[in-house]
Input
Amino acid sequence: MLAREVLEELVRVLGRENVLTEQEDLLTYAYDATAAMKHHKPDVVVAPLSTEQVADVVKIALRYHVPIYTRGSGTNLSGGTIPVEGGMVLSMLHLNKILEVDQDNLTATVQPGVIIQALNDEAAKHGLLYPPDPGTVTTATMGGSVSECSGGLRGLKYGVTKHYIMGLQMVLANGEVTRWGGKTVKNVTGYDLVALFTGAEGTLGIITEIIVKLIPAPEARKSMLAVFDDVDKAGRAIAAIIRNKVIPATLEILDNVTIQTVENFVHAGLPMDAEAVLLCEVDGYKEVVQREAVLVERIMKEEGAVQLKIAKDDKERDLLWLARRSALPALAQKRPTTVLEDATVPRSKIPDMLKAIRRIATKYNLQIATFGHAGDGNLHPTIITDERDAEEMKRVHLAVDEIFETALALGGTLSGEHGIGIAKMKYLNREFGEAGVAALKRIKEALDPNYLLNPGKIVRRD
Amino acid sequence: MSVYDSLDSITEELHKCMKCGNCMAVCPIYKETRQEVGVARGKISLAEYILSGETEMTKGMGDRFSLCTTCMACNTNCPCGVRFDKIILAARAEAVRKKGLQSAKKIAFTALKMQRVFDFGMKAGSIFQGIALKNIPNRHSKLARMRVDVGIGKEKVFPMLSKKTLRSEFPEVIKVKTPKMRVGFFTGCMINYFYTDIGRAVIAVLRENDIEVVIPKSQACCGIPASVNGDVVSARTLAKRNLRAFERMGADALVVACSSGGTAWKHVFGELLENDHELKALADKWAKKSYDISEFLIHQVPFKKEGLGRVARKVTYHEPCHLNRGQGISKEPREILKSIPGVELIEMKEPGRCCGMAGSFSLVHPDLSGQISDRKTADIQTTKTDTVATGCPACRLQLQSGVENAGFDEEVLHTVQILAESYRVGRKN
Ligand SMILES: Cc1cc2nc3c(=O)[nH]c(=O)nc-3n(C[C@H](O)[C@H](O)[C@H](O)COP(=O)(O)OP(=O)(O)OC[C@H]3O[C@@H](n4cnc5c(N)ncnc54)[C@H](O)[C@@H]3O)c2cc1C
Ligand code: SF4
Ligand code: SF4
Output
């Protein structure tokens, strides 16, 4: 429980309507999109309307030692917004203005509560594009996706969120407002704190303004779908495409379990016994797209695709993508709990990873479907289970441990795009070693000595 | 076990929700408030906490569950197929069982009483209206604004109570020379008391197509305003009364021109009367032959195209939530509009977006309802049309109110009115 004067001060700064204290409201900020995670109710939820108000709130929190859990749309998959230590949830959703689209510098300046799709709609009016496209483009905020450094389907060619963040306005843990980076392409002044705060999951500062890079929207695109009877062949096709210097905008893979589930769900016309399906889209200038599409088609055939479908128009394209789009929904409808991981390996190790996951599924007697961004090595092994089955959940946790170990052994990483949060905190030293974890901690303590910001995430306090 | 009887009935439905938050993209309430409790995910969590015993049903919970227009947009956008429409009904019914009829005393009357008040209003006629409402001049139809704020704001524009109710204007059976079939017309309250013009259009169009129309005098309110607010007892009484009224008169089919009425006859009556053997059978029988007027005209009649006169209108179509998502009727009204010579159909940005009326929702949350309506009104204005067609009198009221407050010239009509107009013009030629 918070002292009465804390609430009074918050109300004085934000107005009564932006300070929620009733149980019925607080309970709805106790969770995020992470599956099978214990929820925690905050003591208060506040929703500031300006950077100044954010700074004032931080100062109040500092004075009374109230933990601050910054929250965008709460769609992250690592427990990043769960207020494990109670205290305050700071909702950034009212800071939702697109401040500027600068066509001369190819940048946009937005507040953190802007939804990614809203930025893209605005950019599209000028023929521009903000490429990072997590599955949650229509719901996730810019602040949240910068803080998770979200990826998405276009990672292979266009990179991920961090490649588009040019400047940030931050409220630091001491309540001071700072600016880092800006609209210049080149900037080496001081340490690269824009890079540090991007992906920091709200543990180092609070983002109050973001300058992003925009690119001209590609003129044309072409999609194709290839079916393989062997994951190794699919793996070789991926490698061959890249080796031939074609960088598709997206290159996605669905494994056999996913294919069967999707097929039962939407009847997209995929062969049930297929071992892997690759979905590929090339984009760019019309002429280039034409040339690359022919090349990719040839490679897929050479590498042994048993079936190949090429979309002739946007309608056919949507049909091809139906299978991929339906992957998560189809899996989610099978059983109530969907544990979605994002262990990532070097692209060349995709077949090994797929086979290892299959082995792990058999070992722990679980249903694991794998799909994901084959082109950038970011797979989503998805365990479909039921949270209420305690015995099965034990096996789920063991399987997750082993998936992470396999990814690391293959030269990969714990998380490609979902972040560490609470969910993957305990695995960090396996990737970094004790010294690495200690370095993370010193950075955290340098910027937030009192563990005011998102405590209990990424680094543990002793 | 129906959603009206116990919160346990939705346990599995709740478990389907994976908290992905996709519902945030489409929820009209959440778009305005940006508070988690506004969106389906928030209310689902509250229901879960109540079921697990972590917290109990409080008056405050009831208030939170009232934050939903039941537009079903979240259903459609949910990757897990969560039927939030069921969850919200169950949660509201539970709130009423535990905490009494909606904490919002603002809904001054239950559906049953509403009918009595309307009937009284009809008798008292202009006196009643003169006291409470003031006329506002409008080119298209008689509208009024609240003189005093009785807790629902003075912004809302109301249609004037009609001089005569629709049901008193017509005999119970309207004969035609060589009837193709005999159809029961369930009018619903709004068409009976306020928008009798829609009712007259329905009757005219049916007669034009050689259909005998039966309008049982003893039919009542559909009960949806009661059932969506958790007042299951009143809803059951009304369901029974309606079923008996139509059963006594008999008909080959039943038509409605209102999305609540359609939902009631097709789904809700059966669910409410699940435990009543005899009436459940009756409800199922009528559910099978109940149709929305546009659905009926396209698929059952099909309505005759000869004799349609020219109607020069630029029309945009607003989808009532419970017609579009609730009953899957979206193409049919457009098909009707497109078949009318002279009508140009111009789509608005998000025709399926909720208008914010949602029956009593707009009475309990007038500000929120107004904000949602403003977006709709802006979308309509950008189409540069002269007419909005829709398929539900409640939407018509909300759209009319929005257009009136924004001060631009746009007529709001039920699709069937434009069809009736076309037949009328056709006859004159
Ligand atoms: C169905 C589904 C599909 C998904 N697909 C993808 C995908 O393809 N790729 C991908 O990368 N992710 C994906 N995600 C994960 C998630 O959508 C992204 O991480 C998203 O960017 C989070 O945005 P948010 O606004 O919901 O942030 P939140 O969940 O609210 O917050 C995320 C983190 O950012 C911090 N934060 C939020 N706002 C600020 C701020 N202003 N300042 C400082 N810190 C802040 C929070 O404290 C938290 O640690 C998916 C999630 C779901 C449920
Ligand atoms: S979209 Fe469906 S599964 Fe996702 S949070 Fe909303 S109700 Fe739950
Ligand atoms: S039914 Fe409509 S208003 Fe209610 S929660 Fe779903 S989207 Fe929101």
Notes: The radius of gyration of chain B is 21 Å. Residues B 17-23, 40-41, 44, 74, 78, 80, 82, 84 surround iron/sulfur cluster (ligand 2) (CB under 6 Å).
